[in-house]
Design goal:
Blueprint (H helix, E strand, L loop, with lengths): L3 E6 L7 H10 L7 E4 L24 H11 L3 E6 L8 H10 L12 E7 L7 H11 L12 E3 L15 H19 L1
Parallel strand pairs: 1-2, 1-3, 3-4, 4-5
Amino acid sequence: MSKKVSILVGSLRRGSYAAKIARNTISMFPADWDVQIVEIRDLPLYDFDYDDPEITDKPTPAAYTEFRETIKDSDAILFITPENNRTIPACLKNAVDIGSKPNADVAWKNKHFGIISHSVGRMGGYSSQKNLRLALSYFDMVSPGQPEIFLGQSPSLLDEAGKFNNEKTENFVQDYINRLVALVTA
């Protein structure tokens, strides 16, 4: 049975390692699944006035509605994120906030999700992943258990074409994707 997976990349940089890692994961899902990177670059900064029924002169941006519907229509969300200043990149936190409203119709509620974090240093984005998990814990989301994926020294794991350059990393990430798939299909 085909499923839909939305991948959110927590980096806007043109040469983003997170985007390269995300592209590697697409083919790791079952072939009949619809797996797409959902662009968060142009989402306006979250402002509750857009969702406040008392504010009538500030309509909800179409980008908010489209993003929320995409997330609600997804069977799973895969977050691929670097670490910025020991926390979640601003673009990703903005997407989380947009999907969290309106309170009566939260896009994230009860979704399956996975997180792959990375960093150019050795910690592999540990702080960003833990902060993202904290933000998502409010929405009763379900993710695979251990081991979590922290890809340290991420530039060294990719070749010139942006593909994983070693079997160990590829197998590690594939195992995580397999566990996410099993969670979604259980």
